Amino acid sequence: MHTIIEPFRIKSVEPFAITTEDHRRRALAAAHWNLFALRAEDVMIDLLTDSGTGAMSARQWAAIMLGDESYAGSSSFFELEQVVRDLTGYRHVFPVHQGRAAERILFTLLVDRSKTVPNNAHFDTTRANIEFLGGTALDFPSAGASDFAHAAPFKGDIDLAALRTFLANAPVGAVPFGMMTITNNRMGGQPVSLANLRAAAAAYHGHGVPCFLDAARFAENAWLIKQREPGQQQRPLRDIAHELFRLADGCLISAKKDGLVNIGGILALNDDALAARVRELLILTEGFPTYGGLAGRDLAALAQGLREVLDEDYLAYREASARYLADALERLDVPIVKPAGLHAVYVDARALLPQIPPHELPGQALCCELYVRGGIRAVEIGTLMFGRSNPATGETVPAEADLVRLCLPRRVYTQSHVDWVVETFAQVVRDRARLRGLRIEEQPRYLRAFTAKLRPVAAPVGVANERSRP
Ligand SMILES: *Cc1c(COP(=O)(O)O)cnc(C)c1O
Q1: In this structure, which residue's CA is closest to atom 11 in ligand 1?
Q2: Res. 405: pLDDT tops 50
Q3: Which residue range forms the structural domain that includes residue 275?
Q4: What is the DSSP letter of 40?
């Protein structure tokens, strides 16, 4: 058999309203053309993020009922601790309310203004938490990682030569720890190879620098190693995941991704002295170490999620879903970042809409059009999110690229939902010459993508095709 099917059936459904283009056009205007300002009930297919948006299994819901809500010594904590120890091999396991809490706690203990933290590419919150403490967050993406059209198997890898040069020249004590993000979210969810992680960890360790994994998508990374890295095809997935963790000295995990839960995170490490300091700080802000800002039921659901996520049938289905969308978009000549990862497909909006200059936000224009046409919510990762206003001239300095990310929540949407997305794209592609850009009317000083108010530069987006419908 060639068809890869969902290795689950649906037991509980969450209806959503099928809205009209007219309704969506009004909702978009009321949201000032910023999709973060939409009410979720006005969205039909929400591809904004894969973070905390997955569906839990029947066993996870059963675990919710079994969660132990004791303040101290909860049995759900000990269950989670055992699962994380078995998975990672790390001695000390701390639950936290989400990934960034783990970042804040670890970085507060190790980062100050004299410190620099290297990474293949820092995720937004990782970078922000380091910079907030006055430290420097450095990215070492591999050569070719930003060549979207080029399909290399491990575009998430760190640039080893650049990393080694940096470490050799760093003042003693300036690098408190090094990081590796698996999968590499900033570089399009691309995986890191075992060979690259092994070499990066050796480079860090050669300079006495511990290595921490930002391991939100460890299972997806392990799966892509098994698919793509020479010599790994016959290994049990759990072995590969275990080796990833064993190569490092600790990890930060946002459990909202491969933890298969809606909220939660983990900080795990081996260093006893550091763990003692983590414990103190954890009590200050997250709560007692046996619950870490989560309910006992959350701990129990997370333990079960971590047991499920390395299921090879699940990951084969997940890869097939992303590839199904990516292949269909390619058949429509939509330029995408290649190869497709597992958690999202990224569209190169600047290439798709060449008539819209970067300062008129081609990525956001595409997002708005997808919403009006199909009730789909995607997210712009481009000039709206990362562009800067030049304070001297007021001009927008474009981001490196204008991408649109179509994230795939775990175990949520079916193939016909994806077919709807593809049909919407077919319409957008057909009428793309008529799409116009947007300008920013109002923006905050930080993280403008979340709250900026926008306005179409010419005719409102989608107006040219008032009557068409996917
Ligand atoms: C989501 C994510 C984080 C932050 O985790 P939150 O749970 O959103 O706080 C950190 N790093 C990576 C790679 C992520 O994907």
Answers
A1: 123
A2: yes
A3: 58-308
A4: G
- The length of the chain is 470
Give dist(CA 77, CA 67) in Å, integer. Answer: 9
Residue of 48, 185, 261 to test ligand 1 pocket, by largest number of atoms within 8 Å of CB:
185
Which atom of ligand 1 approaches the CA of 181 most closely?
A: 13
Q: Is residue 383 part of a domain?
A: yes
Q: Domain count for the chain, please give it.
A: 2
Contact status, residue 182 vs residue 215, Cβ threshold 8 Å: yes
Query: Residue 253 Cα, ligand 1 centroid: separation in angstroms?
Result: 7
Place of tokens 């049990």: 236
327 and 209 together in one domain: no
In a domain, 3, yes or no: no
Of 348, 291, 359, 329, nearest to 425 by C-alpha is 329
Report whether residue 216 contacts ligand 1, using a CB cutoff of 6 Å: yes
- Whether 462 shows a pLDDT value over 70: the answer reads no
Inter-residue contact 364 to 438 (CB < 8 Å): yes
What's 243's domain CATH number? Answer: 3.40.640.10
Indicate if 33 and 118 belong to the same structural domain: no
Q: Rounded to two decimals, what is the model's pTM? A: 0.94
DSSP 8-state assignment for residue 190: B
Give the residue whose CA is nearest to atom 5 of ligand 1: 99
